[in-house]
Design goal:
There is one protein chain. By secondary structure, this protein is of the alpha/beta class. The protein is built from twelve helices and ten strands. The strands form two sheets. Strands 1, 2, 3, 4, 7, 8, 9 and 10 form an eight-stranded mixed beta sheet that branches. It has a two-stranded parallel ribbon with strand order 5-6. α2 crosses α10 and α7 crosses α12. The radius of gyration is 23 Å and the shape is globular. The termini are far apart.
Length: about 325
């Protein structure tokens, strides 16, 4: 082969390999500028605080700022669409939460598909809920509550911050599996005063928001919504011990636009996993009511798909429509 032809072939081979080399180089240098984590909830809520905790630790580990960008509104769909439309380069991320999976089957006319357009990056943890009633309700266990509800159909009111919220659909899953008839009362302000006064007879709530009242005897905890008991309420049984197949939890993790380089996703997954495993961070997450759970991107994608499928069945059962 002539020298000139050999040089030409080597040049062509080098050019063919250039995109792959650039992707590798990009992954090795990621992140090289600030990264935004878009949160579809107002500042101060548990998922927002968790996102800020993770962002702070990632900034320290990776030497680039991870900035939490709150974009509430549209049942968190505004934030999701912002990330979907962002460049798929790993510099705009989404704080994915249980609400995304619940809303997917409710809001069917959106300009995006949550599972199709958001890449699963890393799980951060789950948030157990607890089933609470006022002491005035004559039910001390889940079986007693079910019996009382069936003897008094349509006379037990349960509260939530709105149709399609986690507090709402967690009760609807309970209704679907037990056959009890309950009345949904959505609130735009705090539900606790009416619950403590007995005007509302049931609430499925994130544990931190009601833990003090449970310990003070102002509310009675009947079960936690996870498959196993929870450290914060060690004497409270898991719902599945009474209602086979029941499981419902809040959760949070990180997603990215479809097309984000695999190398960047891998870097984020490894770094977030290391952050969540750090004893100091883990303790702070637990203090927020978040049980740290890490997954590979593939595991997290499978988990999110399962959540969308589960809540689609509940949404259909309850006839939940967009507000």
């Amino acid at each position: 082969m002539k020298p000139a032809r050999r040089r030409l072939l080597r040049l062509a081979a080098g050019m063919a390999a250039l995109p792959a080399l650039m992707r590798i180089a990009g992954a090795q240098s990621y992140p090289s500028r600030p990264v935004h984590i878009v949160v579809g909830l107002p500042p101060g809520l548990t998922p927002d605080i968790g996102a800020r905790l993770i962002a702070q630790s990632l900034s320290q580990r990776l030497g680039q700022q991870f900035i939490v960008d709150n974009r509430p509104g549209g049942a968190s769909n505004l934030a999701t669409e912002l990330v979907v439309r962002a460049a798929p380069d790993g510099y705009t991320l989404l704080l994915a939460v249980a609400g995304n999976a619940i809303e997917a089957p409710i809001y069917t006319n959106l300009n995006f598909d949550f599972l199709r357009d958001i890449v699963a990056v890393a799980s951060i943890g789950r948030t157990p809920f607890v089933m609470v009633v006022p002491p005035s309700l004559p039910a001390h266990t889940v079986p007693e509550f079910i019996a009382y509800a069936k003897a008094n159909p349509g006379k037990i009111n349960f509260a939530s911050p709105g149709s399609g919220s986690a507090n709402h659909v967690f009760v609807e899953l309970f209704r679907m599996k037990t056959g009890v008839e309950l009345v949904h009362v959505p609130y735009r302000s705090s539900m606790l005063p009416d619950l403590l006064a007995g005007r509302i007879q049931l609430l499925f709530a994130a544990i931190p928001g009601v833990l003090a009242d449970i310990r003070a005897g102002k509310l009675r905890a009947l079960a936690v919504t996870t498959t196993t008991r929870v450290e914060a309420l060690p004497d409270v049984l898991a719902m599945r011990e009474f209602v086979p197949g029941y499981e419902a939890s809040g959760w949070l993790g990180i997603g990215a636009p479809k097309g984000t380089p695999d190398g960047n996703v891998k870097t984020l997954n490894q770094q977030i996993g290391a952050v969540v495993a750090d004893p100091a961070v883990k303790a702070r997450l637990v203090g927020l009511g978040i049980v740290p759970i890490t997954m590979t991107p593939t595991e997290f994608a499978k988990f999110m798909a399962g959540e969308v499928d589960k809540w689609a069945k509940v949404v259909k059962f309850a006839g939940i429509k967009p507000e």
